[in-house]
Every structure is written in C-alpha cells, then in structure tokens.
Design goal:
Elements: E1 5-14, H1 18-30, E2 35-38, H2 45-54, E3 59-64, H3 83-91, H4 97-110, E4 117-120, H5 128-140, E5 145-146, H6 163-171, H7 176-185, E6 193-195, H8 205-213, E7 218-224, H9 231-234, H10 242-252, H11 254-262, E8 265-268
Parallel strand pairs: 1-2, 1-7, 1-8, 2-3, 3-4, 4-5, 6-7
Helix pairs in contact: 1-2, 1-10, 4-5, 5-7, 8-11
Length: 273
C-alpha cells in the first residue's frame, strides 16, 4: 500500500564543487536523500556526472542556472552575479533565457543523463519571464516535474528560520496562482507541497525530524544543500559553506530515518512518481 505521506528529498547544487558532490552522494547512500539537481555550468559538472553513474538509484534533475558561473552560449560570458543583476539583464534584453537554459539541459542529456525534474538556482523562476521559459523547457524536453518553491506552513520549525526568510516566503505567496497557471498550461507537474526555502542553511537533525513529523498528506519536496566543506567549497562564491556539513549530518542521522518510519512517510523520487 502506498503511504498517504510521500517525501522527495532533493539536493540542489550537484556539480558545484567536488566536495559538494561528495556530500550529496554520501547523503544518498547513507541517508534519506533521494534526488539531486545538476548544475550544467558547475565547475565540478564532470565529477558529478561520473559520481551519478556509480549510484544509479540517485534520481537526477537539472538545476537551471541564470545567476553565477559562465553562460553555455557563445561567447561564453559570465552570467549575472546576483538576482538583481539578472532582473536588470532581463529588462534590458541582455540574456536569452530560453536558449541559455536549453543549452544547460542539452549538456546534461549529452552526458547520458535524462533529467526527471527542473528547478532553478536561487529560485529565479519565481520571476515571471524566467518561469515562462522554464515551463517551455519542461514541455519541449519532456521533463515532467518543475519545482513550485512555496513553503507549506511550517509551524513546528518556525523558530529555526530567520525572520527575514519567513517574511520573504510569506510575501511570495501572491505569485502562486499565476505560477500554477503557467505550469498547467505547459502540462508540468508539481509536488503537492514544498519545504526548505526558509530553512536553507539553518536546520539540524532536530529541525528535520520535526519537519518530518509535521508533513501533510500528499507528496512533499524538501530542498536541501548538503556537502563536505573543504578547500574547493571554502574558496567558492556562496554563503552556504559549513552549513552544508550540518545538513549532511542531519540527512544521515539515525533519528531522521527513524522519524520517517514512525510517521509512516514513504521516501520517493521523481523517477518513481
């Protein structure tokens, strides 16, 4: 019998650095991580592809990148370095959204990986022009699942999230209706619920256990950013460094897997959905 509560645990940033890749694979083999999204322009893309080939049970999607790193389109210029810079580039028509993301999906396909789901680095598809392009990518490449990054009410772990992240999450709710209309128009699927926007970089084992205990009936995606924090990550441009080690420890903790069993939560990925 299928559980009434199903959980996809997805690691973003696969391909970012070798030590992040290492932590993602460890979280899958030793813990509850069920899927990951791959950065086609990541500096450790080839390493991630190699590792993924050794763990075929890890479901791999595409982490579409419009902020940070290099474009995959000639002349291979740097992408905008921040979300405000991206929005300015969109207004000035200085970035080809669809073509850039199509090139990223194409590189993943050429590497022998058939992505089952899409999300975006820094949730840039919350911006309507990016969402429109992502939905077209999903339909054109027949990738059925797209992340809908609106946290469900997480009263049980509310104190773990910084107030600014909570306020931002709540403020983004006005985008939900259009977001769903666009995805439906392009025949994209989403999970019933999502969690992780507010908790990024701020959860430990206790918070993850409480989150599992509070899951609603249906399918929930939990976004996380595990990794090992060594020299490659320490020198990378990201605020998530030591927190990746803490997230990894939470994902592999015995208490976390025990919480899934005690609460009757079925661990799944997009491939089986």
């Amino acid at each position: 019998m299928t559980s009434l509560k199903r959980l996809v645990v997805n690691a973003d940033d696969f391909g970012f650095t070798p030590d992040v890749n290492e932590g993602i694979v460890e979280a899958h083999i030793r813990g509850i991580l069920s899927s990951a999204t791959l950065m086609a322009n990541g500096s450790a893309f080839s390493d991630a592809v190699r590792l993924a080939a050794g763990v075929p049970s890890l479901d791999v999607g595409c982490h579409l990148v419009l902020v940070g790193g290099q474009s995959l389109l000639p002349p291979y210029r740097p992408l905008p370095s921040s979300v405000p810079e991206l929005l300015a580039a969109i207004v000035a028509r200085q970035i080809r959204l669809y073509e850039e993301m199509a090139a990223q999906v194409g590189r993943i396909l050429e590497a022998g990986i058939a992505p089952t789901h899409l999300d975006t680095h820094k949730h840039t598809h919350l911006a309507p022009p990016v969402l429109d392009a992502v939905a077209r990518i999903a339909e054109d490449f027949e990738i059925p699942w797209v992340r809908r990054p609106f946290d469900f009410p997480m009263t049980a772990v509310r104190g773990a999230a910084p107030w600014l992240k909570r306020a931002t999450s709540e403020g983004l709710q006005f985008l939900r209706a259009r977001f769903q209309r666009v995805l439906s128009r392009h025949h994209c699927r989403t999970t019933d619920y999502f969690a992780g926007f507010q908790l990024t970089g701020h959860f430990r084992t206790a918070e993850l256990v409480r989150l599992i205990q509070s899951l609603p009936e249906g399918v929930t995606e939990f976004m996380c950013h595990p990794g090992r924090c060594r020299d490659p990550l320490r020198s990378a441009s990201t605020r998530l460094k030591e927190s990746r080690e803490a997230e990894l420890e939470a994902l592999i903790a015995p208490e976390t897997r025990a919480a899934l069993q005690e609460c009757g939560v079925e661990l799944v990925n997009y491939r089986v959905l």
